[in-house]
Amino acid sequence: MPFLNRRVSEAAAPPAAVPQPADPEGVIEVGSLLPRMAALAAEGPGGAASPAVRASVQAFLKGRIAEGRRQAEAMLFSDGSGLGCARRLSALQDEVIRAILDFAAAHVFDAANLSSAERMAVVAVGGYGRGALAPGSDIDLLFLLPWKQTPLGEQLVEYLLYMLWDLGFKVGHATRSVEECVRLSKEDMTIRTSILERRLIHGEPALFAELSARFAKDVQEGTGRAFIAAKLAERDARHAKSGDTRYLVEPNVKEGKGGLRDLHTLFWIAKDFYRAEREEELVAAGVFSRGEAATFRKAADFLWAVRCHMHFLTGKAEERLSFDIQPEIASRLGYNSHPGLRDVERFMKHYFLIAKDVGDLTGIFCAALEDEQAKESPGMVMGFVRSLRHRSRKIPGTLDFLVDHDRITVADAKVFAKDPVNLVRIFALAAALKLEYHPDALKLIRRSLRLVDRTLRENPEANKLFLDVLTDRHDPELHLRRMNEAGVLGRFIPDFGRIVSMMQFNMYHHYTVDEHLLRSIAMLSKIEKGAFEHDHPVSTEIVATMRDRTPLYVALLLHDIAKGRPEDHSRAGAKIALELCPRFGLDERETELVSWLVADHLIMSMVAQQRDLGDRKTILDFAEKVQTLERLKLLTVLTVCDIRAVGPGVWNGWKGQLIRNLYYETEPVLTGGFSQTPRAKRLEGAKAALAARLADWSAAERERYIDLHYQNYFLTVSLDDQVRHAEFVRAADRGADPIATVARTDAFTAITELTVLCPDHPRLLSLLTGGCAAAGANIADAQIFTMADGRALDVINLNRAFAEDADEMRRAARIDAHIRALLGGREAMPGLIAKRRGARGPAAFAVQPQVTIDNQLSNQFTVVEVEGLDRPGILSDMTGALADLSLDIRSAHISTYGEKVVDVFYVTDLTGMKVSSESRIERIVRRLTAVFEEPDGEATSPAAMRSDRAFGIRTAQQ
């Protein structure tokens, strides 16, 4: 007989409060489970309780579950309904649990007729209680007892749990009486929330009904506000933990901001506070409009579809939508590429738009809750609006807006309809008065977006008010963010609307394009207020002396506004700036300045990180491009804000130092202070300055040391560094080891500098960078100096990995050991690098290798620029390839942009001349391209390794 001789026919239906897709189709067909299980018990030796029968039943259920999941996945592909898939999986789980319990009661324990003390209800709680499961979801069960556990009840529970665990399910469970459920729900909000989402799967309906009645009366009644506060605080803490933004490019679909958990929070509050079982009841209560209720259903269905696809694809409960699975999920959901946007980027844009919808719904919901609480307050007679006015104060100069507890709100529901400029004015007033926004006002704004039309966009007053918001001296990001979240910003500036929620499929950008722009403006505001005086002294000084702030703020807002178009976004953005700036009220000079800044907003970062700043032609070419001191100043600040807003870990002090150096080198050129002192005279002065600093050395020792270095060293290395190098070389010469290293840390630049002195060799830099790669170190820059006695003095700048200097020095010691092992032939490069290649890398990405050879960027050197997909040891392979090509590397400038490397080498041939032969240039391009296309090919060939080992022997002999 069935378990407890009771079945709950409606138990398989999803709870009504779960949003339903419009027309879910398809039911999983796995056949009737119990008859086959009973047959297996009858056929098997030793009865139903025997291990053999249990194994047969388990194998049967595994097969049926696998088949059911295959059907669910096929239906998900067919109808695209995420909620439909989640409900089908939940229904399948229900059938499995019922079948196991009925089988255990009737065949294993022969307990068809139970006493009243043995009655039990098996209740789904938590996420399972909603009647929606992803393939990898936990199964949360409550075994509900009338009083206390009986031996038979304990046996049934144990049999079910062990069977579910053996079937591969993750099961959370509790066994409690009704009284215990009520008491624990009062004490613990987590337990209360779990039981709030209860659903009877099997067993005694009367017992379940008793729990429902007691829960409503003893737990929920009179405690709604406390529950709401707890859930919203829990949500805020979860958001803070995940970065407090819904625009992370690898979002957590379940726990992230704008994800399923936010929808669940709304569901919990609706069920607890409003006692709502369907979204239609929230419409009837005035919480949502019908359109907003439809948005709620659409968001839930989409997020469930993404989550179910992720679990099916990975075979586990994967909740983070990582780069490596985004393309496959996009393909599963049927997205196609469009000009300017790949299929995966279109998918992720849709994802972030849905996440934004979830945020909008949360704001609307919170506004409704505040209304309800206001209605419940004492003295309420004529409704919320009258109460609002009693506790609000007027804003001088306007009758349309009020201040309610430091939040701006509307005086009535018609303020935007009678004057659409109010849709911008409300943000300008909030900025001027340092106010936050009442949820009621934001709800009305969202419902009035149709009023943002061409007439409003071209309204001079509206544009002036917008500039006031953009250039607010207190917190422009806050008000622009609220404007964006409400939908006004994207409608007021349609070009901005095109990049709302747009992501770029790479590991470099951590946020969507609109989020990046808002964060860059926040950075400028903080610099202007002096918050980064230590980190950005030059930018802070520039901003403090700016006569006109507006062009810089406008340029930051627009610098990436043309992302996602087929043409270059910088040039396309400059054209947009030429159209928008006059509309904003900027004059011709300001418009031209903004357009130039947008067009060339990447040039300073590129030159600083990828060019040799010690090469005078680099500075002169950059100055010619910039032309004016005003442009240089604004570009410097814009570059800092742009990089800082890319994401955590992208900015470091080394990049700041490079930008400062470029600024300081270029400023005198633009102001006429640069003097064309002959190279010979500058060289003579540099040698004399070093000799003066080495005054405690003997004259012969001093002269001998200075003669070790070639001209380029004195003209490119600072005097302080020359002195340090001199002491380092002097100490090394007094020892017997031909290899000497020294490391020093710099917290301000976040760089650890490793200086190596050893016999020179064409593959030396390859071995040094290989030793760094083996320790997992990221190289920021490298300077290579050949000395007259056949040794090399190489300076490697490593991005800092640890907060403590002691940890950095231990890492430097590991690098030193790797370098010595490579130079001495005790380690081969492939084996050493292979140890680092097991970690997760940029396998999800494809970057077309590109090699550019340029003889115009420097008067002395050929500049080789290489772009391609990053991987451990790539720099070592590239420098090894350059050595094989008989090229002498004079300096290397290493840049990493997520999965992409852009490495620039200043080289000569072995005679010290530029590479001018076309055939040789073609060989260089082919060889360096092969490094990316054949990572285990020529660059790490046996011949190359033999060359490394031979070098180790020669070093030892020398």
UniProtKB/TrEMBL annotation:
Pfam families: ACT (PF01842), GlnD_UR_UTase (PF08335), HD (PF01966), NTP_transf_2 (PF01909). This is Bifunctional uridylyltransferase/uridylyl-removing enzyme. Residues 513-629 form the HD domain. Keywords: Hydrolase, Magnesium, Multifunctional enzyme, Nucleotidyltransferase, Repeat, Transferase. Its EC number is 2.7.7.59, 3.1.4.-. Its cofactor is Mg(2+). One of its GO terms (biological process) is regulation of nitrogen utilization. Uridylyltransferase (UTase) activity is inhibited by glutamine, while glutamine activates uridylyl-removing (UR) activity. It comes from Plantimonas leprariae. Residues 753-835, 863-940 form the ACT domain. It comes from the Bacteria. Belongs to the GlnD family. InterPro entries: ACT-like_dom_sf, ACT_dom, HD/PDEase_dom, HD_domain, NT_sf, PII_UdlTrfase/GS_AdlTrfase, Polymerase_NTP_transf_dom, UTase/UR. Residues 1-396 are annotated as: Uridylyltransferase. It catalyses: [protein-PII]-uridylyl-L-tyrosine + H2O = [protein-PII]-L-tyrosine + UMP + H(+); [protein-PII]-L-tyrosine + UTP = [protein-PII]-uridylyl-L-tyrosine + diphosphate. GO terms for molecular function: [protein-PII] uridylyltransferase activity; phosphoric diester hydrolase activity. Gene3D superfamilies: 3.30.70.260, Beta Polymerase, domain 2 (3.30.460.10), cca-adding enzyme, domain 2 (1.10.3090.10). Has four distinct domains: an N-terminal nucleotidyltransferase (NT) domain responsible for UTase activity, a central HD domain that encodes UR activity, and two C-terminal ACT domains that seem to have a role in glutamine sensing. Modifies, by uridylylation and deuridylylation, the PII regulatory proteins (GlnB and homologs), in response to the nitrogen status of the cell that GlnD senses through the glutamine level. Under low glutamine levels, catalyzes the conversion of the PII proteins and UTP to PII-UMP and PPi, while under higher glutamine levels, GlnD hydrolyzes PII-UMP to PII and UMP (deuridylylation). Thus, controls uridylylation state and activity of the PII proteins, and plays an important role in the regulation of nitrogen metabolism. The keyword Magnesium applies.
